[in-house]
Design brief:
Order of helices and strands: EHEEHEEEHEHEEE
CATH topology: Cyclic Phosphodiesterase, Chain: A
Number of helices: 4
Structural class: alpha+beta
Strand order of the largest sheet: 3-1-9-10
Shape: globular
Number of strands: 10
Strand content: 35-45%
Radius of gyration: 17 Å
Length: 185
């Protein structure tokens, strides 16, 4: 099984992201748009896990005690080399602390933290194939869309989720495996 840990989005945020997607998406645009059901903020990608690691992760995450986290979305952006269109998430001390607590907890199960800095974001679309024209076209649509960056509501995350990523012909779908509350804070 392929696992990752993330924060689900508040309905108001998903609605605003869906409106942005609806405004920018075009038939045949060379992009694979992610579905609202898959939107989340990744805290740690674990990857392939065997059953004993899955049990260990559950045990470790159940021990965590952390406060709720205020989540603020920022501007849309692009990971050009990877061909990804996303909306960034503000890196706050509280979010970073939660992410670090989780990576420490899962290290007991044989998972390593990533080498690169934590860059929380919500992936909205991925380039199909290697052509960069689809991303250039999307950038033009985004630039001409409104003249100003879209505004997203902030929300308080009261939980995080252990997800399983299941690969399929149209991309991955995510299933909740366990939910973990964050303390009111």
């Amino acid at each position: 099984m392929r696992l990752f840990i993330g924060i689900p989005l508040a309905p108001a945020v998903s609605e605003r992201l869906a409106a942005l997607r609806s405004h920018l998406e075009r038939a045949g645009d060379g992009l694979r748009w992610s579905s609202p059901e898959s939107w989340h903020i990744t805290l740690q990608f674990l990857g392939a896990a065997i059953e004993v690691q899955y049990g260990c992760v559950l045990e470790q995450l159940e021990k965590l005690t952390a406060p709720s986290v205020l989540i603020r979305l920022e501007e849309p952006g692009f990971f050009d080399r990877a061909g990804i269109f996303y909306v960034s998430v503000s890196v706050t001390p509280q979010l970073t602390h939660l992410q670090q607590m989780i990576t420490r907890a899962t290290s007991h199960c044989g998972f390593e933290p990533e080498d690169r800095p934590y860059r929380p974001h919500i992936t909205l679309a991925r380039r199909k194939g290697q052509s960069g024209s689809s991303m250039r076209d999307l950038k033009r649509r985004l630039d001409s869309a409104s003249g100003s960056a879209p505004k997203f509501p902030s929300f308080t995350a009261h939980e995080f989720v252990l997800y399983e990523s299941i690969l399929g012909p149209t991309g991955s779908r995510y299933e909740d495996r366990a939910r973990f509350p964050l303390a009111a804070g």
